[in-house]
Amino acid sequence: MKRVVALITTVTVALGVLLSFAAPGGGQVTNDAPADSPSQPRLQLMSVSNWVGPNAVFRAEVNLADIPDASRTTFTLHQAVTNRYSLDRSISGEEFGAALLRGEASPSGSTPRVATIDIPISATWPAPDNGVVLTGSGVFPVEISAVSADGAELATIVTHLIRLPDPDSTTPPLAIGLIVEQREIPSIALDGGTFLAPGATDHLLASMRTLDEFPTVPLSTVPSASTLIDLTRTRPDIDQSAFSSLRPTPTRQLLASTYAPIAVGSWLSAGLTTETENQFSAGTDTIARLLGAVPDHRIALLDSSIDSPALSLLHDRGAQSVIVPSDQLFPAPESSRTPAPTLAFDVRTPTGDRLHAIAADSAVTARLQADAATVDSEDPIVAGHNALADLAVIALADNGAARGLAIVVPGSTPTATLRVLLGALADRDGASAGAPGSSLLSPVTIDDLFTITDVNTTYDANGTAPLVRNLRSEEPMSLGSYPALLRSNRRSVNSALSMIPESPYLVGTAVHRSLTSGDRSLSDDQRNGVVASADGALRAITDEIVMTPQQVVTLTSRSGKVPLNIENRLQVPAHVHVNLRSAKLDFPDGSDFEVVLAPGTTTRVDAQVTTRASGAFPLDVTVSTADGALPVTTARFTVRSTAISGIGLVISIGAGLFLLIWWIRHFRSSRRAAGLIGTTVGDVGDESDTDGTSPSTAAAGDYAPRDDQTPGDP
Asked: Are 639 and 608 in contact (CB under 8 A)?
């Protein structure tokens, strides 16, 4: 398997230089370009203060490009929300607390069609001009509205003023283990393979550049090997420096994952245990070679497909700790009211082994996706700031022990939303807004998150022990014919590797497609199609081995050689297995043998054969991969033997002798008959000579015609 995995990373990343985005200034997050104009009036948040201290100025800038010129922009600061339920109600615009301050935005002096809202904050009375006194920390909804000249409300967005605790606060901040995924949904090419569409490519590169903008913010990354390989194939100009933000540093931790995001529980249920192991191994080895660092497999990020067998597999692979999405805890916390637990706990495998666990708040992750059910789902900065407000509510509501929470940032998170989150964690004391406060959040790596966070304990027969929480998972889904197709393809890959062991990179495309086919974002038909394209990539290699048969091979003796001309069109050596089959031919040297074909040329192999009889017989030749499992090319020869067998030779010699004897005897009989005829004629002559007279005319006349008779008449 190591050879299979190693070849993936030989896909070379060509030279290129990535441009960096400018880091946001003044601790505020900016939206570089306004969104396309919709048909309805719409406000878009361009920048907002992430935090404000006890004596600071909250500022928000709003894009008015889609608002009529004669309109006014107003704001209302409402009473603080104290739990997730009231936060959800304020985000949706359904319910607010009492109004603390009302005002009107002023035009931006430097940028047309942009309104600026400034709210001075004081911790003590009297209130500042056009400002408000906030004596304690809290999350205060800010409702921003565009109002027409006749007083009609045209559009509304809601953001939040997050007032930090006083600088001398002794309450420890909530430790946040940020886990940023680098994963894009693949597109399907015409040949059935996968690639990254231009939008996905741009988003992935922009996200990695955004991570580079905040190198001091501790976080953990989970890159998908299939996504990064698709990136290098889609954009061969990408340089290795593009991955600098993913490499481990004192503030960055690299976590291991499968090669492609698969539904692990469904795979194990379908009997794909070996293939699941391959996914983990290929993912680890590929990332290690691309980034030059081995990802950490001691900590596993769970998803809804991880059931009890999958948890056991993770434990057997060396996982010691897990990050559990809060919606997988059983019983699950009510996401609308109860945040994820902020104390560590344990989960137990079916065999009783314990894994340390910390929850990842699923509701915060959903906010980062700009949920379409919310009013301002199209504004990525609003989405990011809503997630910050949610974390602030959690931090303010539970401030007893040393607490920790993981936050998963999915690969599909808008870049602007990610920048909001990272910018807030970089400027977590609110110093950019004026007077700093005490931080509510403290970003850490996942390793440090487990070190810092207190453990929720209980009592058992042995005394105090970590609380064990049960997990729930989705039911394994049917994978249809995919498991059989995948197994067949993996066997073909291994066979192809046995043919070109010195050049495993040639099957890199097939291996990549085989591993990527399991991506859970693909439909059943797409998944099967990608596996079929992997088979096609293998055929493109094996089709380069061809054999042109000689139509008829004539043997003049019982044994001889049949010339096999096998052409290797590959530019690398090919190790093949040759099999000979015939009903009337024997193979003294064996019917199976191995041959190494030189690259880019034709290799002649003489197959020794022995005939059992004279005549014409078919000879079938099959060339396979070195392991003999995958046929490469076939040919049929006609072998014609003119040799005579031993029995035939005896019969032929006997027949020849018989004919010779018969001829001799016939010759002698003919000579003897001729002698007898000669003796009779000589006696008549002698008699005439003795008399001295000629033979009588009468005797001669008996055979002469009469004078009146025409010759030929009777």
From this structure: no
